[in-house]
Specification:
Blueprint lengths: L1 E4 L20 E4 L7 H8 L4 E4 L8 H4 L7 E5 L8 H6 L3 E5 L5 H16 L1 H9 L15 E5 L3 H12 L3 E5 L3 H9 L3 E3 L2 H7 L2 E4 L13 H4 L7 E4 L10 H8 L4 E4 L25 E3 L8 H19 L13
Parallel strand pairs: 1-2, 1-3, 3-4, 4-5, 6-7, 6-9, 7-8, 9-10, 10-11, 11-12
């Protein structure tokens, strides 16, 4: 089977234990993401199978129309919004979306970013590398208010971290299931958006992106935050109204942000060149290159699932297929 794996930014897939599952197959691995249809066709033209690393490469009808030899797409972890399932069904391409998501890696990164932002760890570490000593006074999270937007598996872990560190944890009560779950865990639920944003010292965003949540956080919400408050996003950039966070930071409310997700990914620019994203290059914004799920254990889990599903399809066995399937 001719298999193409794209978007392996760290060139790490071949070093995973689960990669041995593909022994005996012809596997091509690419470290970059190609955006244009022509580039994607050139990359995938010989592929019988494509293995997706989450949503880094969208699978569109226009692409599928030019890949007549493609038979199957396999992805570990849930979520297939980046795949046109109807187009796959129309072209007889099986889509395997298998396994369960692992919330701990994203929760750990969220908490690391909260602590790094509040204690100003990155600028202080950079000062020391430049031969300078202490320059900015950070704050402890103990006694502060953590506001969570969303209360799924990741947010539940972040809430537990907050409580262990002595924080008051509030949850935005934007839907009945969130209210019930958060109150069941003994957390304070605030249904009024103005009160939620104005009271929080740290707001962390944990919604799943869909048609209802796109642009959920608005400029007027952010402008209610305190000048010394921190806004954290390790979920998806388009959960925020376009331009809203940049405008709010320019206005000084909130005063800080820590961001792991961007409108266009990956982001590259040369030294001295202006970044394409306006959140980069700001001294009050901690930016990381979408590391939420990027750690070895999660990769072993997601890609191991994807490889096992692909091999099961190849053997003609049942698979966890999204949409119509064809063996």
């Amino acid at each position: 089977m001719r298999i193409v794996i794209s978007d392996d930014y760290q060139d790490c897939v071949r070093n995973l234990d689960c990669f041995s599952l593909l022994a005996g197959h012809e596997v091509s691995i690419h470290r970059d993401t190609v955006k244009s249809i022509d580039e994607q066709v050139a990359r995938f033209s010989d592929a019988e199978a494509i293995v997706i690393i989450r949503d880094r490469t969208p699978i569109t009808r226009a692409l599928l129309e030019r890949l007549p030899g493609l038979k199957v797409i396999s992805q570990g972890g849930g979520g297939a919004a980046h795949i046109d399932l109807k187009a796959c069904a129309d072209h007889g391409v099986t889509v395997c979306v298998a396994g369960t998501s692992l919330p701990h890696s994203a929760a750990e990164l969220t908490w690391a970013m909260i602590l790094a932002s509040v204690r100003r760890l990155v600028p202080e570490a950079q000062r020391l590398q430049q031969g300078l000593w202490q320059g900015e006074l950070g704050r402890s999270v103990a006694g502060q208010t953590l506001g969570l937007i969303g209360y799924g598996a990741i947010a539940q872990r972040v809430a537990a971290f907050g409580r262990l560190f002595g924080m008051q944890v509030n949850v935005l009560g934007h839907r009945p299931t969130t209210i019930e779950r958060a109150r069941g865990d003994g957390l304070t639920v605030i249904e009024d958006r103005r009160a939620f944003f104005s009271q929080a010292d740290i707001v962390s965003l944990h919604l799943r992106l869909n048609a209802q949540t796109q642009g959920f956080v608005r400029r007027e919400d952010l402008l209610l935050m305190k000048p010394q408050a921190h806004f954290i996003n390790t979920a998806r950039s388009t959960l925020i109204e376009p331009g809203a966070l940049v405008a709010a930071l320019d206005a000084g409310r909130p005063g800080y942000a820590a961001i792991d997700v961007f409108d266009e990914e990956p982001i590259f620019f040369a030294p001295g060149q202006k970044p394409s994203d306006a959140l980069l290059g700001r001294p009050n914004v901690l930016c990381t290159p979408h590391l939420g799920f990027v750690e070895r254990g999660t990769y072993e889990h997601y890609l191991g699932d994807a490889f096992r599903q692909l091999l099961a399809w190849h053997r003609g066995e049942p698979v966890s297929a999204a949409g119509q399937s064809r063996h």
